[in-house]
Amino acid sequence: MTKASELEPEDAIHRGPPVTVDRYGPGKRINHWITASSLILLALSGLAMFHPSLFFLTGLFGGGQNTRMLHPWIGVVLFFSFYIFFFQLWKANLFTRADMGWFTGIRDVIGGHEDRLPEMGKYNAGQKVIFWAMALLIVALIITGVIIWDQYFNSYTSIETKRFAVLAHAVAAVLIICVFIVHVYAAFWTRGTFRAMTKGSVTGGWAWRHHRKWLKDLAGRGRIDPAE
Amino acid sequence: MMDSPRTAVSNPPVQPMESNLTERDLVRRSATSELPPPERQLTPVAKLIDVSKCIGCKACQSACVEWNDTHPGIGENVGYYTNPHDLTEDMFTLMRFTEWVNPETDNLEWLIRKDGCMHCADPGCLKACPAPGAIVQYSNGIVDFVHENCIGCGYCIKGCPFNIPRISKVDHRAYKCTLCSDRVAVGQGPACAKACPTQAIVFGTKEDMKKHAEHRIADLKSRGYTNAGLYDPPGVGGTHVMYVLHHNDKPHIYSDLPDDPKISAVVQAWKGVTKYTGLAAMGLVAAGALLHGVFGRANRVQPEDEESAERLVDSAGGRREDA
């Protein structure tokens, strides 16, 4: 059985009926949506400066000058909101032996045959990949972003360093946008997922189907509300 | 009338003139892929700076400040002549002074190079610029910043092989030498060339300037400067500001003038392959998700799943966590 420390304190089963399972407390949900909005705003403002055909997106931010001025500040917001989130979730996102089975059974994942895969804890291997990809890319983006934040940090690095930073920033941004699309689509494809980040809970069936080990651990530890 | 002035020395025409540099004369415009070709080709112009004739009087700097109406702060003497200590958003041209001991003759040579935008034929600033129309290139070779379109990102600084553009801390826009495009447009040469008392700075068609340089180089060679030559670096397609250097074999001795300037390969990769593969990658992932969303089968929770969950919860009964 999973150690109690790897179950989030707010995770709990409600008998219902129907059975529901608390997955994210209000703090984490607020944090998630701050991070999500920042990432969307960063993608829009960043893409405006990435390719001329997308420059019109600066209109959303009140013109090019404002876009250039706001983008790094939104990045700072994202960095802090994500990293608070990171320290809340990282333990549950450590890879386990069962994750290998998920990777080798990727066809069954895509085919929706989760019954053929090992039982997953709170996060499956794909979610963990997204989590760590986000974590690494955000570090890369904040470091390279500060290097090219000329308004305040121009004098700290050489032009040659800034050239590498701006290239790395663009590459990391492309990657994180791809990761973001996969993340959003996976949440949409796996029906019943969004409510985890809106209401904070999922149905018992959702937990059984996708994160059976997590559900069993919660049940095994008696994290169940008394019957109403 | 001629399409561009042939000299900076003559006095300007007295009759009012229309600007002869317009949107129609653009050959490149930053972040703009479909620029209509210009209806005419202006005669390429150039400024030639003969380093060997410069006396370091800074009349060019004064003329530049006056014409462009900039207001550089009062400088501070830190023991050398270069003043201000770097190009700024208020100082588009700067005499850089170098004391160099010629190892062959053991003579001290005082090298004075008037630094400023080189007006590259292949401008790195323009390539790097993300703001449509913030940097333009006219068919006469002048590369100009259009400040109302500038967003202040500083990408031009990363694109420039000569470290020329500066961003204003006040209005957050990039500034550099315009080659006095506003003067050239009405038949006058650049202010610095007009002010230069020794004609170390001359202005005219690029062809004329190259010919003029040949005479100067021949003269310098006859005086023992065997490596004298014209600095018109091919790595950036040639420039519309050229130098006559007495030591053209080692441009770097002139306050780090690049020996072989090129747009950085990193900038090329950033503005080339990254842009196209990046857009393609994001597009493919988005299209893949969309197609799967439309044609794929959603991963839905089944009634059996809910029943199994209920059974599990029922069988777990009232066990407590600390049990």
Describe the structure.
The complex is a heterodimer of chains A (about 230) and B (about 325). In chain A, helix 2 packs across helix 5 (about 125-145) and helix 9 crosses helix 10. Chain A has ten helices and three strands; from the N terminus they run ββααααααααβαα. Chain A is mostly helical. With about 325 residues, chain B is α+β, with helices and mostly antiparallel strands. In chain B, the strands form four sheets. Chain B has a four-stranded mixed β-sheet with strand order 9-2-11-10. Chain B has a three-stranded antiparallel β-sheet with strand order 1-5-6, with no helix packed on it. In chain B, strands 3-4 form a two-stranded antiparallel ribbon. In chain B, a hairpin with a 6-residue loop joins strand 7 and strand 8. Classes of the chains: A mainly alpha (about 230), B alpha+beta (about 325). Chains A and B meet through helix 1, helix 2, helix 7, helix 9 and helix 10 of A and helix 3, helix 7, helix 8 and helix 9 of B.
Low-confidence stretches of chain A: none
Beta strands of chain A, count: 3
* Helix percent band of chain B: 25-40%
Shape designation of chain A? elongated
Query: Per DSSP, what share of the residues of chain A sits in E-state strands of 2 or more residues?
Result: under 5%
Distance between the termini of chain B: 100 Å
- Our Rg estimate of chain A from Cα atoms comes to 20 Å
Task: Quote the beta fraction of chain B.
Answer: 15-25%
Radius of gyration of chain B, taken over Cα atoms and rounded to an integer in Å: 29 Å
Structural class of chain B: alpha+beta
Uncertain residue segments of chain B = 319-323
Count of helix runs of chain A? 10
Strand order of the largest sheet of chain B: 9-2-11-10
- Rough shape of chain B? elongated
Structural class assignment of chain A:
mainly alpha
Number of helices of chain B: 9
Distance between the termini of chain A: 28 Å
Largest sheet of chain B: 4 strands, mixed
